[in-house]
Amino acid sequence: MRKGSKIYSVFHFLCPKCHEGRFFISAPYRLKTTGDVEESCNKCGNNNMLEPGFYQGAMYVSYGLGVALFVGIWAGTSFFTPGMQSWLQISLVAISSIGLSPLLYSLSKIIYANIFIRYDMDAVAKHTKPLK
Ligand SMILES: [Zn+2]
Questions:
Q1: What is the pTM (predicted TM-score) of this model?
Q2: Model confidence over 24-82: pLDDT tens digits?
Q3: How many structural domains are present in the chain?
Q4: Within a domain: residue 73?
Q5: Ligand 1 centroid vs 23 CA: distance in angstroms?
Q6: Is residue 128 pLDDT above 90, yes or no?
Q7: How far is the CA of 32 from the centre of ligand 1 (A)?
Q8: Percentages helix, strand, coil for the chain, rounded to the nearest 5?
Q9: Is residue 1 assigned to a domain?
Q10: Which of 28, 37, 40, 123 is most open to solvent, judged by the fewest CB atoms within 10 Å of its CB?
């Protein structure tokens, strides 16, 4: 996981364009501002609000993450504890879905942004370069 890959931006919650500036206003579990995106990057000036309602598309990513979580828990409990009752599996899925929802919400937004915003290694230099 090195700078320049989308995985780096996603798991460090950094600007998709420069991979240096913060993408979110706060950490995922600060519930008052969960998932609130900085309007522009403080390092490269990238506009994180590409258009009004841009992050509504992130709900599809969130749905995918939720399904992956459900399938992962179901497959894991079925494989490692074959006799586990269904109500216990459902409870595990429900508890983890609620507990991880701020993290999944934030992850879905930054994954969605990384689909549309490309990494630019010179983004910070271009932004701080004085105009002639
Ligand atoms: Zn940036």
A1: 0.89
A2: 999 999 999 999 999 999 999 999 999 999 999 999 999 999 999 999 999 999 999 99
A3: 1
A4: yes
A5: 8
A6: no
A7: 24
A8: 55, 5, 40
A9: no
A10: 40
Whole-number Å distance, alpha carbon 18 to ligand 1 midpoint, is 4
| Distance from the alpha carbon of residue 47 to the mean position of ligand 1, in angstroms | 9
**Residue 38 amino acid letter:** E
Q: Is residue 11 part of a domain?
A: yes
Residue 109: CB partners within 8 Å, gap ≥ 6? Answer: 24, 35, 37, 55, 58, 61
Cα of 120 from ligand 1 centre, angstroms = 9
Tokens 């460090």 belong to residue: 12
pLDDT at 15: 96
Residue type, 58: A
Which among 19, 15, 17 is positioned nearest to 2, based on CA atoms? 19
- For residue 22, give the 3-state DSSP assignment: strand
Range of the domain at 71: 6-128
Neighbours of ion ligand 1 (CB under 5 A): 15, 17-18, 21, 41, 43-44, 46
Tokens of 33: 């501002």
Closest CA to 11 of 98, 111, 105: 111
